[in-house]
Amino acid sequence: MNAFYGAGNAANARNAAAPAGKKKNEARSPRLAAVPPVRIAALYGHNPKQNQLLASLPQEDFERLLPHLEFISMPFDMTVCEADTQMNHVYFLTSSVASLLYETRDGASAEIAVIGNEGIVGVTLFMGGGASPNRAVVKCAGYGFRLKASVFMEEFRRGGALQQSLLRYTSALIAQMSHTAVCNRHHNVMQQLCRWLLLTLDRLPSSEMAVSQGLIATMLGVRRESVTEAAGKLQDEGMIQYRRGHITVLDRAGLEHRACECYAGVKKEYDRLQCSHVAAAKGAN
């Protein structure tokens, strides 16, 4: 069970099988409409406040944004934004998990950060960078809410609770990127795999994740054979159970013991962020 995913989101995950009958292209580009308050209860059990940033807002601020939030399905491998493109929306994730990827000109890529319901995709909008330097892709299917960039920036410039929460979140995100860079350069594949599994697990409602070894290799920027070997050792030691396209974590404490200090450093920052979210939410109420 993860560190960020609330009890309410666990129920959502059971409802996260999107309405049947959608074609693949429809899932990638759903027709979206603004979500008025009266419709929240009907959104497959989802509520914008299942995103911790939105949940931390004072009610007045939240209600100002609510009519502009668009509920979206976020299927596996959906591209949230491409590198070097201006984002027209920011995405508040609820039950989905996204990866920020850096891609080279020859097509190689590596994950530099993972984002769940503790944050958003789109920090470059308020950091002054303009176009996103990274590609963002959904690696665990689920749902979220998106907000037009113009509405988002108008709220950010008010200098209120949303701005403060976003700056704290960005600090934690930068810390994660820093630890990931060090880990990918100085630690072995086993340590990197344990870190990756734990960071993903922290953002999921259960101990099972739908992920292939090929995808993990792409995210870590290593050979698939190296991931297969490391995953095999973890399975032999009883820490994970792997079947085609699915990994179940059986021994989280064992993974934490095998991981390098990078995971502990990232978790410390996000624990601090979560405490600030909780404090803000209590103060708002």
UniProtKB/TrEMBL annotation:
Keywords: DNA-binding, Transcription, Transcription regulation
GO MF annotation list: DNA binding; DNA-binding transcription factor activity
UniProt key word DNA-binding: yes
Annotated ranges, domain HTH crp-type: 187-253
Pfam families with a match to the protein in the record: HTH_Crp_2
InterPro entries per record: cNMP-bd_dom, cNMP-bd_dom_sf, Env_Response_Regulators, HTH_CRP, RmlC-like_jellyroll, WH-like_DNA-bd_sf, WH_DNA-bd_sf
Database matches in Gene3D superfamilies: Jelly Rolls, Winged helix-like DNA-binding domain superfamily/Winged helix DNA-binding domain
GO cellular component: cytosol
Alphabetical list of PANTHER family matching this protein: CRP FAMILY TRANSCRIPTIONAL REGULATORY PROTEIN, HTH-TYPE TRANSCRIPTIONAL REGULATOR ARCR
Name assigned to this protein: Crp/Fnr family transcriptional regulator
